[in-house]
Records
---
Amino acid sequence: KESRDLLISLGISPMQGIHEALNAIKHATTWNKNRANILDAKPSCVFEVVANLDQKNVLDEYESKALLKKNGFNVPDSKLCLNKVDSNDLGSINFPIALKMVSSKILHKTELNAVVLNLKSDLELFAAVENMRSSVSKKAPNLVSNKYLIEEMAQKPIAELIVGIQADKQFGLSLTIGSGGVFVELIGDAVTLLLPTSSEEITDAIKNLKVFNLMKGFRGNLATNLNCISNEILKLTKFVEQNINAISEIEVNPLFVFEDSVLIVDALIHTYKSNIS
């Protein structure tokens, strides 16, 4: 204690253990690195949210992904069916397919059995529609919808991410990246960045996630091109920045991550108004 008091009196921070000291050095280094990056980037502005956050409209999955596709993002081939599902509705979509009940009020489809994957035939599709309507009617009758989304099944990804962008009156826009799919609430693996950001910051954030072990080629599997993935996420932030007074929130979950590309498998967009560029 006397040694600590002496060091403190001389303006020197005493070590409180090797582990604690190394952590302190690590955080100080990270802070200085981030500060230098921010000063070098010289962002043109800090995004101010001026829209009324209490006046929100939620686009359903079909509407959200249609808007994202219109703006150059990669989404699965799909078909929206009303009231009933007919094999003639498939068009160019090939089995196996995914079936989803579509409603802006259904936030977690899996819990309501409102999504069925890997359907391989007309018979399986028709049976899935009946079972889905029955299940949702029992679990949440107020959420039953007559809209069904048919999608071609995507290839198995290297990893799944959740990407969320949210507006806040105090902090402006923030970006959250984490382990997606069923792991979102299970392991709580996520990092948050304030916008505007850069592909370099996004890359560093991804490297701090547990799911990064999968992305860098776990047990001989393919690795992702991290620069490519970071640029795709940055592209999504730019889309929201350009529509800051029209979009209040975007949640993409899951975002399928492949070697050199990403696929938005599910998304919900919260808006202030319907006119979005």
---
Amino acid sequence: MAEVDGSGWTRVASIPAGAIVEAHQVGAHVRAYLIKGSVRTAQGDFAQGLFIEVFPGGEFPRMEVLQQSELFLTVEGGYDAQVSPSHQPAVISHVSTVQWRSAVVKDLPAGAARKPLGDHDDFGAGILGVLPGWDSPFDEWHTFSEEIFILTGSMSTSFGVMRTGDYLSHPAGSDTNHGPVFSHDGSTMLVLRHGPIGNTYVPAPQGELERVRGLD
């Protein structure tokens, strides 16, 4: 579990087959991604790759769990907080229906693409994919907070090697510098953003580049 902007939390919920999550109002901004299993909603049956976004005062949809499932959840605000009801509908989409597009960060090195799942205002949610051998030889900071959950493959970073199921949170601001990043085998990852898009890249020291590229 990790804090996000202000009050809130991030976790992976394991839900057994046969469980039913009844529709309910939430007091927070909730983003959820099905990383394992399958579920049934009013919109149909979905396997891994279902994305749900609910706004404060909105309704989290009823969900019947068809197979043992794992749901990545990030919540900003108090989940059970008493707030005025919202008529803004939940966003429900599946990664299989979304086309690959250019990454939203214009200076991101070539070899990366993104499937947008929930972009609006200062929020963004999507799947980022990088090819084997992808290399970002920079130290970097950005104007938005960022959460990353590795879905497939691996990413060698200044913090170590991230593999399937690993999670990383980057607060916004120049005091949270990170990088460089390299992927031996390629990777796909869920990336959640909060804040205006803005990245600053500075070439990383050669010694750090070699260290990160040598991780496996």
---
Amino acid sequence: YKKEFVVLSRNKREEYTVGARGSSIHSKIDENFIVDIPPGTFNEDAKLSMK
């Protein structure tokens, strides 16, 4: 499988919870920044923070 990492620098913080079903996270600060998390990435709920 392929691992990818993204680094984004900004002054505000957003938090999201992602479960085993995956999710598509749309930033409230930058509408062009979207993170697609496929199903099965996490086994249980995980809290993701963008800062």
